[in-house]
């Protein structure tokens, strides 16, 4: 599998649009891996996780053919993960796209937002309501939605994705996982785990993970032999409010064998 990290920032992006904090000023000056767009991942060019407002920018920067995407998994409805209005661009009258159907998998709130964005349009989407811990065979893979701990106003999801004999845990947005998710993970085997570290070194870990929560998650996965010995762990979804540049994050996580994602990074597992 090829995993392409299209964006690696939290809601605000880095540097944030109006912000003059030290992190944003340095990101503007240094550029490179310090500049982060809103988070999304593309797997083998055909499975996309989340649909942020930077999707148009991602398609240009990386030369993506978005019409190749067959499955779109939505974790939750927050605007940095679902900019539903842009889905209408694929509808009849806005685009001359192929005849293929784009399948969207999500829980109630993101599906309602997507339905509203497409209301009155002739389109080639198929919307699928997923339920936590119920496996689904999609066009490209086998997915299992898992419960996240993020926004109490909706059912936010993580995803286990199995494709070509490899299994990924896409584990954010979430703080420390709910008990049901930890229970499900026991006795599983993962080749790649993608976590967030939105809040950096702060003590906050309820709806986003901090550094300690990431390290404790890796410890749990290794203790229960869930992450394969040759498996990979990656952190992404960073906020400028954490006050950490790319080099700072590498200094924190590299000693623990955890990779720090940056915009455009690709992995092959």
Molecular structure report:
The protein has a single domain (2-261), classed as Ribonuclease Z/Hydroxyacylglutathione hydrolase-like (Metallo-beta-lactamase, Chain A, 4-Layer Sandwich). Helix content is 20%, strand content 26%. It has six helices and 14 strands. The chain has helices spanning 22-30, 55-62, 108-117, 179-185, 211-223, 246-253; strands spanning 2-7, 40-43, 47-49, 71-73, 102-106, 125-129, 136-137, 142-147, 157-163, 166-171, 190-196, 227-236, 258-260, 266-268. The strands form two sheets. Strands 6-5-4-3-2-1-14 form a seven-stranded mixed beta sheet, with helices on one face. Strands 7-8-9-10-11-12-13 form a seven-stranded mixed beta sheet. The chain is globular and about 50 Å long. The relative contact order is 0.17. The mean pLDDT is 97.
SSE arrangement:
Blueprint: E1 2-7, H1 22-30, E2 40-43, E3 47-49, H2 55-62, E4 71-73, E5 102-106, H3 108-117, E6 125-129, E7 136-137, E8 142-147, E9 157-163, E10 166-171, H4 179-185, E11 190-196, H5 211-223, E12 227-236, H6 246-253, E13 258-260, E14 266-268
Parallel strand pairs: 3-4, 4-5, 5-6, 10-11, 11-12, 12-13
Antiparallel strand pairs: 1-2, 1-14, 2-3, 7-8, 8-9, 9-10
Domain Metallo-beta-lactamase: 63-221
Catalytic activity: 3',5'-cyclic UMP + H2O = UMP + H(+); 3',5'-cyclic CMP + H2O = CMP + H(+)
GO molecular function: hydrolase activity
């Amino acid at each position: 599998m090829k995993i392409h990290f299209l964006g690696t920032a939290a809601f605000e992006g880095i540097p944030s649009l109006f912000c003059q904090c030290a992190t944003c000023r340095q990101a503007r000056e240094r550029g490179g891996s310090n500049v982060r767009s809103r988070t999304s991942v593309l797997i083998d060019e055909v499975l996309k996780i989340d649909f942020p407002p930077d999707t148009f920018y991602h398609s240009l920067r990386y030369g993506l053919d978005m019409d190749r995407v067959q499955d779109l998994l939505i974790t939750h409805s927050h605007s940095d993960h679902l900019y539903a209005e842009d889905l209408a661009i694929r509808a009849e009258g806005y685009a001359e796209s192929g005849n293929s159907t784009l399948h969207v998998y999500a829980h109630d709130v993101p599906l309602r937002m997507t339905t509203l964005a497409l209301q009155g349009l002739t389109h080639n989407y198929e919307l699928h309501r997923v339920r936590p811990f119920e496996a689904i065979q999609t066009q490209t893979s086998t997915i299992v939605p898992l419960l996240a701990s993020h926004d109490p106003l909706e059912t936010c999801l993580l995803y286990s994705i199995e494709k070509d004999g490899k299994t990924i845990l896409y584990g954010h947005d979430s703080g420390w996982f709910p008990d049901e998710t930890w229970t499900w993970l026991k006795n599983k085997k993962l080749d790649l785990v993608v976590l967030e570290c939105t809040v950096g070194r702060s003590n906050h870990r309820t709806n986003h993970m901090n550094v300690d929560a990431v390290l404790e998650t890796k410890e749990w996965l290794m203790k229960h032999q869930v992450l394969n010995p040759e498996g990979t762990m990656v952190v992404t979804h960073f906020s400028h409010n954490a006050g950490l540049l790319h080099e700072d994050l590498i200094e924190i996580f590299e000693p623990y064998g955890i990779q720090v994602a940056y915009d455009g990074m690709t992995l092959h597992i």
